[in-house]
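Long-time lurker. I teach an intro course on protein structure, and each term I like to show students one example going from raw sequence to a predicted 3D structure in token notation. This year I'd like something fresh instead of my usual example. Would anyone be willing to generate the tokens for the chain below so I can use it in lecture? Attribution to the forum is fine with me.
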Amino acid sequence: MNPSLHADILNRLSEFNFKHEKNGYLRAGICPQCQKKELYANADNPWVVRCGRLNNCGFEGHVKELYPDLFDDWSKRYQTPEATNPQAAADAYMQHGRGFELARVQGMYRQESYFDKDLNIGSATVRFAVADGYWERLIDKPHRFGKKKARFSFGSAYQGKFWSHPSHSLQAVEEIWIVEGIFDAIALEHHGIAAVSVMSCNNYPLQSLQDLRDARGNQDCRLVWALDGDSAGRSFTAKHIERARVAGWECSAAQVPQNGKAKLDWNDLHQRGKLTDADIENYRYHGAILIAGSASDKALLIYGKEGKTEFDFEFRNRLYWFTLDLVAYNKEMDQLDSEGSTSILSEAGKREKALYASHTIRPIANCNPVALYYQKNEMTDEAWYYFRVDFPHDGASIKNTFTSAQISSSAEFKKRLLGIAPGAMFSGSSAMLDRIMERDLFHIKRVETLDYIGYSKEYGCYVLDNVAIKDGTLYGVNREDFYDLGRIAVKSLNRSVSLTINRDPDGYTTEWVNLLWKAFGAKGLVALTFWFGSLFAEQIRAAQSSYPFLEVVGKAGAGKSTLIEFLWKLFGRAGYEGFDPSKSSLAARARNFSQVSGLPVVLIESDRERMDGDKSHVKSFDWDELKTAYNGRSTRARGMNTGGNETYEPPFRGAIVISQNNPVNASEAILSRIVHLYFDLTTQTPESGEAADALKFMPAEKVSGFILAAAKREKKIMETVAERTAVYLKELRMRPDIKMPRLVETHAQMLALTDALGLVIKLTAEQQAAMREQITIMAGERQQVINDDHTLVQEFWEAFDYLDSNDMHRLNHSRDPQLIAVNLNHFVQIAAERRQQIPVIGDLKKVLRTSRRRKFIDVRVVNSQIRARDNALGSTAMKCWVFQNDKPTN
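-- Reply from a regular --
Happy to contribute to a lecture. Here you go:
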């Protein structure tokens, strides 16, 4: 092993806490699957780590899968002067990346290079001559090229042909294995097996087989079809064997059994040391099972391998139950033995005949339900088993969940199966179902779940509707409806938020940037900055403890809805603006807040009021509910139905956006958390209107690539935010018009995000300067708003000063000239007598405590000077709101 690679692998393997090397092995490492100290690896050639608990765990991991980045850039690791070895990287890839002996493969390939003009990136390749063209594998960070990890150039000339290993003379061998990949054929050759590659499972090598027959003088050999173990490979194995048998070839099959994890091929087995004679016999058995001609043939093959007298099995997507009647079997054997010399059957023939006569096969399901994996919501303690139901007809497979109760009883299983899969019937007994589940669920794969959509802090990835992003790499959802992110398998249980993201880079356009600038100016780009920053709200809170709220307000027709609906399109959510918290229950609001992560939660129209100004019957929303969301804490807790004292308090993982006509009327704590944008009609022009219309009608498919472009640059963006936030904090603290620390922090974050936004889209110097100036102005304006009293408080004191302006002091009950004591019921009564319009008393009580002009002290009982002056009978005590008097009288 290359010393550099060996050192890097050992360094990475230290995560398993192996004990010191002993007798050439690393031992007593912590198994990542069972958490027992049973992991071991060869110290000199640590290609594979294995768990010693073979029956109870059996974990096995190749270092290529555990640490793919170590095997991702061969040209960089194996740089040598071209004159010394012009194909050093290719040799290293074949030796260390594929596990081949160089002496057995040199001369079969050469090192070449490939450059993608569209992506503007290149890679070294390992190229094989194929027919009149070539096939090559990219070896330098091939994930950068998406699905293009290998290339070929032979057009249709390769159809009907195979690639053969030059060290084997196919005219002399008795058996030829037909595999898909060139590396698979080379791997089998390392174990003395003559193999050819058809490159693709759908390529039947008609021409090459005919040429082989001609070269052998019509002395045919046996063909072993050993295509990949995926559904396509299995399907074409059966088709090709049928076609080859019609042509007169003797055929069998070999299959690599798949365990539901990463798909293994023959090259993978070679690198794991799984191509021994015993292993080959096992793969032949699985091939025979695959191509069995009848349910009875398949059942007897299984019986011959496992020796069980009762078992279930699948044949052509139907479930059957095999039973061997031992009494009938022994009776048949006795009868055959009694025939003595008159029988021409061998002992094996007698057993086969007795087996056919004494077994029964009963259909127990007209479909094939397959348990794929286990998933659990840790927060709610709910768990499900995810099944795929396949049919013998051409109907599509159905995938859905079963609870533990539904797989514990044949009646419940039958009902659930009928409920999710049209026409699917299970007629087996509970005992049969128990046997099936005991086998299928033992050591079943576990998939981690998220009850939201967006960024997962625990797994460091974005899980969106049809794509996941981790460490800058895009992953599509696999055939089993989860994302396989290397050592992490994860899926979202969310069904409420739907994001339709176009992954085609050619379908993404950035013409919308200038349209947004024309339509909304610097304020529109600031809104975009906040929206962009919401993707990293979790990461920013982890580093800086908070992320601000965005308030978008303005007159009707100012374009607020157009702006927000377009920003949603950038994330793949079309035709949506937000939800109205005033129309939602507390539980509904809590669910809206917890169903996304790294995405905005938009609250709209929360300031509704009646046309006549009477808000007494309007359901109001308390903005103080949002305080904890600023730091990412839960907005609501609820009890769990567990019989204990557990509570469910999901943290807030998104970003708050408030869109309404009037500014938020709330406490200083809420106002200081808000980044405020006000839109009016004064800046609207025909050109801005046209740009806004273009944004309104622009399809989400053309712009949803923005979320992918941003999420892929997560690391660089977070580095920029961390670096630039510190710079802008110093700048804003130097400004005399911005005094509140929280305002400095929130607006510094926004300024830093404007710099990070430039990593994703191109912004002109004018646009960047305008955005920074706008955010700085916003910080000063927000400070002024916080310095002033709440609008309702201002209205209250205006009314109070007017009503209390005569010599009678008819509203101030305090005897202390340093204080003002106001009874609100008395205040309402006098205002009604004087025909003064005053705020609704219920809303007023919510904000009076925030009074700054006259500082609020307490609500308490005072000795009323007004009651005493009016010679009121009885007590002069009265409950009042007490404030400091800003202009006490002597």
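Some talking points for your students: Residues 174 and 249 are 12 Å apart (CA to CA). The first strand starts at residue 25 and ends at 29.
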